[in-house]
Each structure stands twice: as structure tokens, then as C-alpha cells.
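Final report, section 2: Outcomes. Of the targets proposed, Glutamine--fructose-6-phosphate aminotransferase [isomerizing] is the one most frequently requested by collaborating groups, and we therefore present its record in full.
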Amino acid sequence: DKGIYPYYMLKEVDEQPVVMRRLMERYFDDQGNALIGKAILDEINAADRVYIIAAGTSYHAGLAGARLFEQWANKPTSVFISSEFAYEEPLLSEKPFFIFLSQSGETADSREVLQNINEAGYHSLTLTNVEKSTLWREATYALPLLAGPEIAVASTKAYIAQITLEAILAYALAGKQDLNLMEELSNIAVAIQAIVDDKDTFKQVANEMLVPASTNSAFYIGRGVDSSVALEAALKLKEISYVQAEGFAAGELKHGTLALIEEGTPVIALITQPKTSGLVRGNLSETTARGSRSYTIVSKSLAKEGDGYVLPDVDPLLAPLVEVVPTQLLAYYTSLGRGLDVDRPRNLAKSVTVQ
Ligand code: F6R
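The predicted structure is given below as C-alpha cells.
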């Protein structure tokens, strides 16, 4: 039931802090130790590489998670689009371990891969929102995302749940001492709450930059993990507002896409990574010099006069959890402002059971 909400998507965006708290209750003890089964941790520890397999938004959550596995847990990790992996398997490492990310647990492309790796005798873990789904049942291990039913075709809270659970897994593997993840995730849930309470800001920005019929394309740019959020932000905008959108690594602009920048083209920069914030600003100003309409979504400690939306500071690798929320709301208000059916975009299905 949508209750007071005009669309499920808005309800599901609002639920994100609750989803995070639910995951924390389930996957941490009172001391903030991660509660992940020993068998799962032993298998990942024994593996020489983790292969994350997913599609669409779940693939984008995988891109963010891979950095956590590599940088926190020192575990080499590769992320693959399931429909690609299924028919062009890369050369595998000697002791691979597979993680499947899927909201529905029924995505045919991912099921195809799981079938193949089961036949080859490899072990796997599925993170899914639907217990007893096919990917849940057919993997060696499975953990629930606990996001509650996601009805809107555009995935939001499942993305947040996937990255949160990937972070808890990476943390459990790493035995990290220098970060209290439970505390950091609580802060992030509070931060997301503040962002969703700022809805009017994003409604206004969407109405100015993205809703006008004269806007037929838009760009999201970022570096490091922000580049993976740029992909997700662009996907969300495309699928529910039908604005042609691209998200990519900011350094790539000058290698081609800059040619598309015209007077008024929206370019939204995601800036949460201290190492590269100056470079992203440089890339953005190359677009403004060519007439783009630029907007920044930036972490507080990196913010400057004239920035668009300022996010609270969090651990840089966990920044996707906060920075994605403004982009979800921008997509939502663009779809709404264009008079479209936010929850049921044309041509798309919630669960993609064909290859
Ligand atoms: C986009 C979206 C899709 C799904 C993709 C994978 O908003 O929802 O891109 O993420 O179809 O679905 P799952 O996660 O169910 O395997």
C-alpha cells in the first residue's frame, strides 16, 4: 500500500534509513561485531578472487561493493554484467568465489551464470531481497537484503541494502579496527533521512534543469566510486524520465563526450572523493566553459562557495549510500514533472525473467 505517497518510488526512497537500520540489527551484535556466518567468511577468505555478478542497478551496487572488498578486505574483486559473463566467461582465477546481487532473485541473466558455475563446481553467495527465490535457492549460501517488497520498477532501497550488506561483509572479512562500521552506518542513515527531508530542493532543481522539454540529454560525472554512482544516477533518470542520460568517469569527458556539450546541457558532478575532487571540478569547468548548466552534489569537507547540494561527510567508500539519494529524487521529480507514470515506465518489467 502506498499510503500517503503518490508513487511507490517515493515511499521506497523514504524507507531507505529504515532499511539500513533493519540490516544493522540483523547483521551486527551489540558490540558492533559483524554477524556473518563463519562458513561464508571462510570460503571468501580462501578464495583468490571474488566475482560479483549482477545486472542493472544491482551491477552498479556491485561496482561500489568491489572497492570495499579490495580496499578494506584486501580481496581482489571483479564485477561483471551477468548477461556478458554468461556467454563470454573471463579467464577465471584458480580459486574463485561468486557473489550474486539481485533484488528479485529471478533475473534470468544472473540465473544463467549461476547455473554455469554450479555445473563447474564453484561456490557462491546470493544477496537478494526475495528469500526462497531461484538465486537464493540455487546458490551455496544466501543472505537477505531485508529491504521489504520493492514495487516501483526503478530500484532504490535495494541498491542501498546491497551496498550496506556488501560493506558489512567486507568489514567482517577485514576485521577492521580503525572504523566502527555500525556507528558509521547509523550516521549515514541519519544523513539519508536529512536528504529525503530536503525533497523540495530536488524538486526545484529538477524543475529548472531536467523537466523542461528543451532538456533532452544530461550527464553525471564523478571519479573513483563516484563514477559508479554516476552510472546509477543516469540509469535512474533514463528509465523513469526518458531523458537521454550518461554517467561516466569524469576524466573521460575530454576523450569524446565533451563534443556533446551545448548551451544549457545539464552536467551534474558527484564530488565525494578527497583525492580527486579538484580534478572533477576541473572537468566540470571544461563543460561550463562550453555553456553547460552545471550542478554539484558534494561532501561537506570538499564543498566550495556556489556548490549545489552539500552532503554530510562519511567514509569516502561509503559515500554512494548518501550521494545516490539526491540523484534518485532528481529522477523522481523529473518523471513527475514530465507527467509520466513514475512507478511503471514504458517497456520495462520489475523482474526480468528473459535473456
Ligand atoms: C533499475 C532496475 C534494474 C534491475 C535489474 C536487475 O532501476 O531496477 O536495472 O536492477 O533488472 O534486477 P535484480 O536486482 O532483480 O536482479
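The mean pLDDT is 97.
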